[in-house]
Design a protein that fits this description.
Elements (H helix, E strand, L loop, with lengths): L1 H25 L18 H11 L29 H15 L9 H10 E4 L2 E4 L2 H23 L7 H29 L9 H37 L7 H43 L2 H14 L4 H15 L16 H5 L3 H5 L3 H18 L4 H16 L5 H21 L4 H13 L3 H14 L4 H13 L3 H17 L7 H13 L3 H14 L4 H13 L3 H14 L5 H17 L3 H14 L4 H13 L3 H14 L5 H12 L3 H14 L5 H14 L1
Antiparallel strand pairs: 1-2
Helix pairs in contact: 3-5, 3-6, 3-7, 4-6, 5-6, 7-8, 8-9, 9-10, 10-13, 10-14, 13-14, 14-15, 15-16, 16-17, 17-18, 18-19, 18-20, 19-20, 20-21, 21-22, 22-23, 22-24, 23-24, 24-25, 25-26, 26-27, 27-28, 28-29, 29-30
């Protein structure tokens, strides 16, 4: 982000500098005066007369640039270093600052410095990469050559080879020396825990990286300004008297004012932003308590920054979802922003859900008061009240109050941004929560008028119509929406809209249409398991069992192994299809697979036991029935079936015992079958 900002600033700077150069050249404001040597030979009077005579024939106001005369080097000296050395030093200090990183958490300054300059990290391992070193070398060669050339052009002395060699060496000593010194100093600051392991120390260390660079630039400005201005000041010095004291006083006040501005704008703003960005890292982890603390610190550093208020309010809202109903820390009855900023992480963690929500409300209302025309703040307040209503399901009165406040804020938000379709959708959701279905539909349709390509609106409105069983209206809505999006170059077919359409078509009995919609979903998302599952069910309902089997198998292949319940349901669909086709072996195979997925599945075990009984596979039948007796001990059918198995293998006494157990469990209307079985055993005896 820093590099991107520098690139933008540099591009704009180049643009305006070159624009100014073109303007100066076009208006003939640019002359060679800066390069004209002061001790030019005076032209002869004859030459003056000749030039004056010729000048009358030229266009008025036009002049020719004076030619540079050949000068003697006698009495003239060349500066030891290039005139641009101050600027070149700043360039190298900046480069070493922005490219120094310690992503591998090294603990030695030299290793951090050299790793930043001469390596890159690939999959957590450093590999050599000298691209940055070559960039630095190229920059130095160009900067030194240009600097020495400009210095030579501004001097009356002749620049010999020895001067050029000495200039390159001195330039390298100063520039590379600063690069190395600042680089090692900055690398040492990047060592983990160098300033301490507590949160305050770490935040100060990270946030002060930019402050260090800023003060280096301030020192550079003072040093380079003195370096460039000193010869002129010495040559033009005048007796000052008391004005010296006045000048020193004014300079001191101006200097302190400038330092104050730098500390509170450049440094203070960046410092707060660094702390804020540390908080965003915890956002991605769902660690809202840490996010609250860091956003609180960022806001404490810049109490008028409404952007930080927005994120602090959001973090408090998310923290409220995890907070207990009762807490130990209480907010004041009428809390202010300072009360929220004074909270510690421990206090936030021990607050009740209601108090955390109140803290979020304070922050978001402050953001709204700081920037009332920012729709985000009003919308966030509306979302806060909407979530607040969801978090108090046992308090209908509080729920209604919060929904009313949410609608009020959404009404204000859509006034501030009437063309924001997503706000109309959120407003519709709030009306739906308040059971105002007509107003919700009105809000959704207003959103469609604003943006007829917005997918979310179609889905929300389709869900509303589906809940009211207005399937025909839902189909019309979705078909028109799909056609509208398909006709627009920046949008296309929506898999979600097609999926909703298929459900509505299936509920109206249009199975071919529903099948076509799901096939279209798979054209957009070939691995959409939901569409595959829908096709399996639709083909089953359409009595196309072979197609249903194919899509069910494909669904199983694409369903993760950990989703056991979904896999069992798909296997059950295969059972139904194979049963319709009369393929009993496949039916039994599917039940065995279901039983392997869920060994305690009573339905699968019951059907397997029946298959084994019909095929007189007594061993498997007995094993299955033993499992059923343990899983479903109150079902009389299991001991009765087990008694039949025992009778078949000649264990009459054991069969009678299980049959008597079944008789005790059987309901009165089913006992006759058990009695008949017992009577058969007695007759056999």
């Amino acid at each position: 982000e820093i590099h991107f900002g520098i690139a933008i600033a540099a591009t704009r700077t180049y643009f305006w500098v070159l624009t100014g150069l073109l303007l100066a050249l076009g208006m003939r404001w640019a002359t060679a005066a800066p390069f004209v040597l002061e001790a030019e030979a005076a032209p002869s009077r004859a030459g003056d007369a000749s030039v004056a005579s010729k000048g009358k024939k030229r266009r008025r106001g036009q002049s020719e640039p004076a030619a540079l005369p050949v000068q003697s080097s006698a009495g003239a000296t060349l500066p030891a270093v290039a005139r641009t050395i101050a600027i070149d030093s700043l360039i190298f200090v900046t480069l070493v600052f922005i490219y120094s990183t310690n992503g591998l958490a090294k603990e030695r300054a030299w290793s951090i410095f050299w790793g930043s300059m001469a390596t890159r990290v690939v999959n957590g391992v450093e590999v050599p990469n000298l691209a940055l070193i070559f960039l630095l070398l190229f920059t130095w060669v160009v900067a030194t050559t240009l600097g020495l050339a400009v210095t030579a052009l501004h001097s009356r002395a002749k620049a010999g080879a020895a001067w050029w060699v000495r200039g390159f060496l001195l330039h390298a000593l100063v520039v590379w020396g600063l690069w190395l010194g600042v680089g090692l100093f900055h690398a040492r600051r990047l060592i983990p825990g160098i300033a301490g392991n507590d949160l305050d120390s770490q935040l100060n260390q990270v946030a002060n990286h930019f402050a260090l660079y800023t003060w280096l630039v301030v020192l550079w400005l003072l040093a380079s300004g003195t370096f460039f201005a000193w010869p002129w000041l010495r040559a033009n010095a005048l007796p000052a008297g008391r004005r010296t004291l006045v000048g020193l006083g004014v300079g001191l006040v101006a200097g302190l004012f400038i330092l104050f501005v730098v500390a509170n704008t450049n440094i203070g703003l960046v410092r707060a932003d660094v702390i804020y960005k540390q908080g965003q890292q915890f956002d991605s982890q769902g660690n809202w308590l840490s996010s609250v603390e860091l956003y609180r610190r960022a806001l404490a550093a810049r109490t008028t920054e409404d952007h930080y208020m927005l994120f602090l309010g959001r973090a408090l809202l998310e923290q409220a979802k995890q907070s207990p109903d009762d807490g130990l820390t209480l907010l004041p009855a009428d809390p202010k922003l300072d009360d929220v900023l004074a909270l510690t992480p421990g206090e936030v963690n021990s607050m009740s859900r209601q108090d955390v929500l109140r803290a979020a409300e304070v922050v978001l209302r402050e953001a709204q008061s700081v920037n009332p025309l920012n729709t985000d703040h009003t919308a966030n307040l509306a979302r806060l009240y909407r979530t607040w209503a969801d978090l108090v399901p046992g308090d209908p009165e509080m729920q209604q109050t919060m929904l009313d406040k949410s609608i009020e804020q959404y009404n204000l938000a859509v006034q501030l941004s009437p063309n924001a379709a997503h706000l109309w959708n959120e407003k519709g959701n709030a009306h739906l929560a308040r059971r105002e279905r007509d107003q919700a539909e009105t809000a959704y349709r207003q959103s469609l008028e604003i943006d007829p390509l917005y997918e979310q609106t179609y889905l929300l409105l389709a869900d509303l119509l589906d809940g009211e069983e207005r399937y025909a209206d839902e189909i019309v809505l979705l078909e028109e929406g799909i056609a509208t999006r398909l006709a627009h170059p920046r949008s296309g077919r929506s898999a979600a809209m097609l999926s909703y359409l298929s459900v509505a078509q299936a509920r109206t009995g249009d199975l071919p249409g529903a099948i076509a919609s799901n096939l279209a979903v798979l054209e957009i998302e070939p691995n959409n398991v939901g569409a595959m599952r829908n096709l399996a069910l639709l083909y089953r309902d359409a009595q196309e069992y072979t197609e249903s089997i194919a899509w069910t198998e494909r669904s199983i292949e694409n369903t993760p192994a950990e989703k056991v319940n979904e896999l069992i349901q798909l296997r059950q669909v295969l059972v139904e299809n194979y049963a319709q086709l009369g393929q009993e072996d496949q039916v039994m195979a599917q039940y065995e697979l279901i039983q392997s997925l869920d060994p305690s599945n009573v339905n699968a075990l019951t059907n397997l036991s029946n298959f084994y009984l019909n095929r007189e596979d007594w061993n498997k039948a007995a094993e299955t029935l033993q499992t059923l007796l343990a899983l479903d001990p109150d079902n009389y059918r299991h001991p009765l079936a087990f008694a039949q198995v025992l009778l078949a293998v000649g264990q009459v006494d054991n069969a009678r015992t299980l049959a008597e157990q079944a008789l005790e469990l059987a309901p009165p209307d089913q006992q006759s079958a058990v009695l008949d079985f017992l009577a058969g055993l007695t007759a056999g005896d």
